[in-house]
Write a structure and sequence with these properties.
With 313 residues, this protein is of the alpha/beta class. The chain has 13 helices and eleven strands. The chain has a single domain (3-307), classed as Ribonucleoside hydrolase-like (Inosine-uridine Nucleoside N-ribohydrolase, Chain A). The longest helix has 19 residues, at 213-231.
Length: 313
């Protein structure tokens, strides 16, 4: 039976590709997209989600709910210097689908309450919407089948500061709330991304050579991120969000994971958003499963297979 999904996203570049996984993977059934303040301007993120649905031939079939337009307590910090507008700077056709009027947090609470134990949530942006849903309904974490989070770095370097990964840095208070809320949570980290979720130039050339509408969509949207990643010494484009969604729907991609206790720094002058990963020797009870190794070739080949069809195939 396909995994029933909601994707909570700050839709730009790799977030778009994660949505494609939710739309096109045979073991996924994407039922809603919720949008949170993160990578680029909020309304642009909403539009990017709608553009992605239409690129996959699924416009009008999956509702898109705009959510929190800013972090819980802090000013928004963008990643536009990485992703530009999040859609490759291209002029895509105006989406026919419109965003829903219902707030994403209300939609999350309603959908999970109506389907207890059935829905998995893939959170690939700052965790503001998820934290607000947990606060709105104290049983939200228990009713959700599983939570998959892209965030943090497992005793390794950050990507927006030396100490912090972007999603946790933008809203550290929300991240702390989520890891204390009792979710059944699996985490895909930035350091794992650098080790195993980078598509180098030969891999990107293979995608480009497919010549399908989805491959062209990928190539255009991925361009600014690739340019930035290479400018900071990463040998290709990074795909943590795509990986997180694939972990949710194709768990066989995970070769090794382990229990950790995760907490997030909210007060440090130099360490805002730092994620503490306690591997079990300091007396803390594990609150997350952390992916430590994946089938790297299987990840890439599966994603290429999804792009190899035409839109909606």
């Amino acid at each position: 039976m396909p995994t029933r999904l909601i994707i909570d996203t700050d839709t730009a570049a790799d977030d778009c590709f994660a949505i494609l996984v939710g739309l096109l993977h045979p073991e996924a059934r994407l039922e809603a997209v919720t949008v949170v303040a993160g990578n680029v301007a909020f309304d642009q993120q909403v539009k990017n989600a709608l553009i992605t649905l239409e690129a996959a031939g699924r416009g009008g079939t999956v509702p898109v709910f705009p959510g929190a337009r800013r972090p819980l307590l802090r000013d928004w910090v963008s990643a536009e210097y990485v992703h530009l507008d999040g859609k490759g700077g291209a002029s895509w056709p105006e989406p026919a689908q419109r965003p829903e009027r219902e707030h994403a947090v209300e939609a999350l609470v309603r959908l999970v309450d109506a389907n207890p134990g059935e829905l998995s949530l893939v959170a690939i942006g700052p965790l503001t919407n998820v934290a607000l849903a947990a606060a709105r309904d104290p049983e939200f974490a228990r009713k959700l089948r599983a939570l998959y989070v892209m965030g943090g770095s497992n005793n390794a370097r950050g990507n927006i500061t030396p100490a912090a990964e972007y999603n946790f840095y933008v809203d550290p208070e929300a991240a702390r709330i989520v890891f204390r809320a009792g979710f059944e949570v699996t985490v895909v980290t930035w350091d794992l991304t650098l080790r195993q979720a980078v598509f180098g130039r030969p891999q990107l050339d293979r995608i480009r050579a497919l010549g399908t509408p989805l491959a062209r969509f990928f190539d255009i949207v991925n361009g600014p991120t690739l340019a930035f990643d290479e400018s900071v010494g990463i040998p290709g484009s990074t795909h943590p969000d795509t990986l997180t969604c694939l972990v949710a729907v194709q768990p066989s991609i995970v070769r090794r994971s382990a229990p950790y206790h995760i907490d997030v720094e909210t007060a440090g002058e130099l360490t805002r958003g730092y994620s503490m990963f306690d591997w079990g020797v300091f007396g803390r009870t594990p609150n997350a499963r952390v992916v430590e190794e994946i089938d790297e070739r299987g990840f890439y080949d599966t994603f290429v297979g999804l792009l190899s069809g035409g839109a909606g195939q």
